[in-house]
Amino acid sequence: xxxxxxxxxxxxxxxxxxxxxxxxxxxxxxxxxxxxxxxxxxxxxxxxxxxxxxxxxxxxxxxxxxxxxxxxxxxxxxxxxxxxxxxxxxxxxxxxxxxxxxxxxxxxxxxxxxxxxxxxxxxxxxxxxxxxxxxxxxxxxxxxxxx
Amino acid sequence: xxxxxxxxxxxxxxxxxxxxxxxxxxxxxxxxxxxxxxxxxxxxxxxxxxxxxxxxxxxxxxxxxxxxxxxxxxxxxxxxxxxxxxxxxxxxxxxxxxxxxxxxxxxxxxxxxxxxxxx
Lengths: 147, 119
What we know:
The structure holds 2 protein chains of 2 kinds.
Chain A: H1 35-62, H2 66-76, H3 79-102, H4 119-142
Helix pairs in contact in A: 1-3
Chain B: H1 2-37, H2 50-58, H3 60-89, H4 94-117
Helix pairs in contact in B: 1-3, 3-4
């Protein structure tokens, strides 16, 4: 038996004249069956929000001078930061694989006068972009591009 | 509050979508090098020396990349968290959750602009 969802979860802005049954959450929501991947994908929002704030903190530190920047790098060496970044990397890879997987399926039949490319082509292009940017930026950041 | 948010929905969706696409693409190398590589000693520490990091970050391309690296994940995070909270708790508290989360993303994006300009 499905349990009751919040009665106003799907309520329209203006109540209609037709009475409808209250919405019900599916039995296995949020962590059972196929809902697990859906829920985890949504929860990566927390990781992205924190990552955005951490990168902001890093860039702000970089603009604040050498001692502040070095203090930030020192904090990054602590176990909590390393642990968070490891979890975040898993989360980011999960988001990429899941999003790139359904991106081709979400294409409209036509984009203006053009038909979108076949799904496998879109998928290959997305992975090429992801891997290419990752390789180039990793090399640049890690110092491989130094003359 | 619902009406203005509905009006802004296309813009929020654009930023959310780019947060997933470009945010994921840009965050991967950031995490590999800044988050894990240098702290774990896999990448030499002088790769992120102040002079080098500042030279990379203050370049025009560096500023644009850093701006995207901050703002886009914030919008992805805010939008996904909003919908997670609607899924789990209903739409009633969305009246304050949505402005709070989008407010964080807006303020963070504005601070990101300041942060890259002052490099």
